[in-house]
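During the first year of the project, the team set up a workflow for recording each protein of interest as an amino acid sequence followed immediately by a discrete structure-token representation. This format lets reviewers and collaborators read both layers of information side by side without switching files. As required by the reporting guidelines, we include two representative entries from the current panel. The first entry is reproduced here exactly as it appears in our internal archive.
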Amino acid sequence: MSAKVQTARAKAPRTALAENAQGVTQRARAYQGFTQQILSGKIRSGQFVSQRELMTLLDMPLAAVREMIPRLEAGGLIKTVPQRGLQIAHVDLKLIRNAFQVRSLIEREAVQHFVHSASDSELQAIEASHQDILSRASALDQPLASDRTLLDDAQAVDWGLHDRLVDALGNDILSEIYRVNSLRVRLIKLEHSVITPARLIPAMQEHLRFIAALLRRDALDATQLLDEHINSARNRVMTAPLEQVRSEWEPSLIPSTPRNIT
């Protein structure tokens, strides 16, 4: 066998592996891009999109978009509708109940672990981030709705606590299930409830009471406060019309892609 043939055969597997790895990376990037579109409110519940529209929206090649679709369908985030294309999950009563039940089951399990495993320094850092949001909100001499940076930071702090709670379990399977379900919850909230100035301070205060229970290592109180927090979010989604929530904003400052708080 010639040296050239041997070299070609040696390169072939590496080339195939490299191409496969690139395909996986692009598919993962496309999925990550899709989740960011949900979180930013650019993709909405019930919306119809084509594969080519997703290409443009995600800035990804068609092959990556096509490979991403089965994962989204498996997670219940989209469905294929004949003659119409892809439809983002439609928010209805069943989805709301199911999504919040899954959230409650996972977070209740997570808090039992986190209350004992989280270090004082980590909990104090989380507490400080919430106190910072409250201090900034209290110091404003203008309507909260005018400070988009503060509202976005509050959203990040809020979601960050819940995500960290689950990730601390160290269970990649549960974390993935929770991430997918979180997208459903956030689709629901973008449709029915937004991070309004009227909700920012109460939500931060709810979190601080929960963090205080974690610092006391009081698993019973922490679980009860978590239940109240999740139930409050679910009940608000199920009872407050979107128009009522939007009325909390000054008319000139209602965002075209509203943010939510969990």
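The second entry, processed by the same pipeline in the following quarter, appears below.
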Amino acid sequence: MMSDIIKQLLLQLVLILLNAFFAATEIAVISLNEKKVRAQAEGGEKRAKKLLKIIQEPTQFLSTIQIGITLAGFLGSAFAADNFAEKLTGGLVRLFGASAEHEGAIRTVSVILITLILSYFTLILGELVPKRVAMRHKEKLAGAVCGVITVLSKILKPVIWLLTVSTNGVLRLLGIDPKEKEEAVSEEDIVMMLDAGGDGGTIRSDDIRYIKNVFRLEHQAAVDIMTPRGAVVAVPIDTDRKSLTELIAREGYSRIPVYEEDLDRVVGILHASEYLLRRDEEGFDLRSILHEPQFVPETMPSDALFREMQREHNHMAVVVNEFGMTLGIVTMEDVLEELVGEIWDEQDVAVEDDSIRKTGENRYTVRTSLPLDDLFEFFSLGKDDEFESSTVNGWLSELCGHIPQVGESAQYRNLTVRVTAGDDLMTREAEVTVKNEPQIPAEAGTETKTD
């Protein structure tokens, strides 16, 4: 009798291991990178060729796996109920001295107990453990079992065909096209995979940041990354040589826009190195060395701008609005900095950002070229969704209803903002005074006044 029990236990162990084989194979194969397997197959690896065929025929593969798991589970339950239920029932009847009329109920309890015990060991040894192992060693495991799966698929081909036809029929009844392709991997999917890789330590944080910046680039327009008009260093076409040479030495820029009358009429881009080489030539004319300017609309996505500048071999472009007015300039460096962060060259001087400086008790000086989001974040004002402007300068114009002049003030929530520098076209600097009162999340009114 003991020998029979050992044989039956060994049979259950074999069926559980068979379940484990199919469960691990399923996870290992579906976790493979198809592109990597294809590259290996094209390189002549025989196992990779078999794996690629399996990956490209997922219905046949998954049907083979499901048949194996179902058969292992069914046979395990059937043999357990047949081999152990009778013995357990007899033992319980003798243990509790139950009468014959209670034997049926005891048998039911025995079957339930055997099923629960079998399910526990099947889940642990036949599902969870092998799947964990397969996730850690997917390539090695998939390569080892691909031959076995290929043979099983051929043997079970008639059964798989019947299951496939039946499954497709049910899907069509539910209004689902079984031949419809899966959705392509989206940007959100890639970002989620990157975050998962970062959490797991398999992808460096810098790499994740660079890739996310690439996706972010297409959602940014030229106007978002440009140097605004008020901060552009440009020269009129009739600038004398001495002044131009001094400006190049002082500013250190390699390219400078040149205009006629005003910045809305940019006639060319001056390359400083070329100017310095040719300025002393007899009959030198500044126009002769100007490069044709590239004009781009303010709404052009940054990724398209990058490709356009590459195609035209330009390092600088002039950003214009729908009326042809110059809004600013954008350089190749501006685009690249959106991808990799700040780029310093030998002319740059690393200084601490002083866009917001504390000048007294609850008093700050702010450069109005500062992004509005940064101002709101600094003063804990929440989101700025109620405003269309992207800079403090534009925000002040929205608050006042016109371009504010020096000395003019505007009130917003607990802030008083007074313009301290600017001209007829734009503000350049403002003083912000913070009132010592709690923030009110509701929209606050604004008022303007002139000193």
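For the second entry, the following points were noted during internal review. The chain has four domains: 2-173, 190-217, 222-340, 356-450. The chain has 16 helices and 13 strands. Both points are flagged for discussion at the upcoming steering committee meeting.
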